[in-house]
Amino acid sequence: MATIHDVARAAGVSISTVSYALSGKRSIADSTRRRVADAAVSLGYQPHAGARMLAGTRTQIFALTAPLRHDTYAPAHMAFVLAVATAARRHDYDILLLTEDEATKGLSRVASSRLVDGVIVLDVSVRDERIALVQNLGVPTVVIGIPDDPAGLACVDLDFEAATRLAIDGLADRGHRRMALLGHPDEIYERGSNFPIRVRDTFLSHTADLGLPGRFSTSETDSGAVRAALDALLAGDERPTALIMHCQESVQATVLDHLRDRKISVPEDMSIISVGSTFDTTKFSPALDVIPLIPAATCDAAVDILVASLPDPPDPRVQYVAPEYRANGSVAPVPAP
Amino acid sequence: MATIHDVARAAGVSISTVSYALSGKRSIADSTRRRVADAAVSLGYQPHAGARMLAGTRTQIFALTAPLRHDTYAPAHMAFVLAVATAARRHDYDILLLTEDEATKGLSRVASSRLVDGVIVLDVSVRDERIALVQNLGVPTVVIGIPDDPAGLACVDLDFEAATRLAIDGLADRGHRRMALLGHPDEIYERGSNFPIRVRDTFLSHTADLGLPGRFSTSETDSGAVRAALDALLAGDERPTALIMHCQESVQATVLDHLRDRKISVPEDMSIISVGSTFDTTKFSPALDVIPLIPAATCDAAVDILVASLPDPPDPRVQYVAPEYRANGSVAPVPAP
DNA sequence: TCGAACTGTCGAAGCGCTTCGACAGCCAGC
DNA sequence: GCTGGCTGTCGAAGCGCTTCGACAGTTCGA
């Protein structure tokens, strides 16, 4: 493995010149810079990570804490982990994965051993022990999701409130008055999971603000429960003409199956919007209008904030990512009575 | 942040004594060791990761390359990533996550910057560019899964062949002669995905060895396709009396739905064994007999091999994890004609 | 024309740790 | 009582890098 000394010798300069030529932190003659660069490439020089951490001030590593609970929806979770890693690489950062049982101990460990320059906290629930920890740890941190008390923290998340209003307004514009929201299992809300609650609350308040009746139901994820929840939501004379779904992929698929079985056609009899989905709703038949939760959008913003503030913690803030409506034909004007 | 000097001063010894007392690499008087340990704790001392990497020979970090393809089954994938991280922590190792588009470039980078002591390669497909790379890179590596050409590599995987035979033999012992295997989507086999192919081939060869008819079908994952595939598998006079499933959770759930719809009861009319599943088959109704793929078992073995061999690459080998049969009541003796 | 201000390069210090060799003090065996 | 071998501790070197201050050599304004 080539060291900086090897490069210096090959280029006929001192090691400090190599360092400056490669980092650009001092002006170096173009001819020298080129010689150094050539030598580095031809020797396959890679700076020793440990030496860099020791001498320099950066480690080029972020810690990512991504708890995996049994009720975590793995595909979405995975997409976020991946999006964070990809965003980090764009800034020349690697990702160190902290597991759940290591969440707090691991955070303290990597922070105080100065293994990482910063921390990215994923999938925050309303009460999250990691939040209190990073608030005290002093290590630069960015949170993806909005904790109950974001005091002192930089947080990034899709603007679920705006997304929900966008869905409702879009439906209202098409003449829909009776809307329903199908959500996650009860447990999710009870645990204080963040955005499902925000969607539910916004749905109820914004429909009320518009003077519209809004029906909401939770649902377990197995197909029987989904069908029952849907039937309940659609029961009675005043059947909703529009459905907003904020639930996982298999549940949305089951809903479409069940509507088909009940001969309720989309969008003729029922308009549907999928909110905050991380998967591709055009694979469904029919394809669904969606206000997606785009992991890359959120994670890019989060990493940008963190990188920009280094070596200091980012300024406290709650940064919302604007929602984006994607029409795929599952919304139609309300049918004539 | 306390350094080793602070600890040395607090304990009234030299820094080398602190180092030896903490690492145990030389004999230190018990009283001294205790004083050092106390000082370290009360100062909250954590060795500087960079300094350790530079001076020592270990970084206490493994790279994990875990590609995420669109057809990857995220929950299983996630479980493996988690199991690797957990196993690594037991040996005081952290996990650096390498993403797919970084697979080869990232591997070279972290290896030649000596950021990691070893590499764990997850989810190997038969032709995998990462394999050739780690074969040449010289960095200690362990592969989870069996590549086409494992030359020079240490590989760990569930013994899918033995698992498949175990399922067949168990059914044969109960008098079953007509068995069917429901597998993954075609694409998986075409891509050369490793273990689905091993299960399929073993199923076909072992049933043949026993002189039994073995029916095999692939299936897409959507419920319509699953039902069609199952109908095809069960068609004809000589309907199979037993079904082995080697497919993802939702497909297995659909199979049970469909059997129920067709009034085929389990296990009275049809015995079922789930092979190589990473999820809990007792949540189904009925609960299914299973020969599980236990991420922790495989990953523990993999990490053990890697840690044991450090700082050298592990001896080349293919280590199979023995399958384990879990009876949950979905297998019965073949019904009287 | 002279000093001030740059520009490009270098040497050396030092980041915090591990580890090697040295050595004082001790005990056991002759 | 002396030697040889332990045991417990220390000082110092050095890992590979960044960065500070120094300093020739050059340019430019007064």
Automatic annotation (TrEMBL), chains A, B:
InterPro entries: HTH_LacI, LacI/GalR-like_sensor, Lambda_DNA-bd_dom_sf, Peripla_BP_I. Keywords: DNA-binding, Transcription, Transcription regulation. SMART domains: HTH_LACI. One of its GO terms (molecular function) is DNA-binding transcription factor activity. It comes from the Bacteria. Residues 2-56 form the HTH lacI-type domain. The keyword Phosphoprotein does not apply. Pfam families: LacI, Peripla_BP_3. This is LacI family transcriptional regulator.
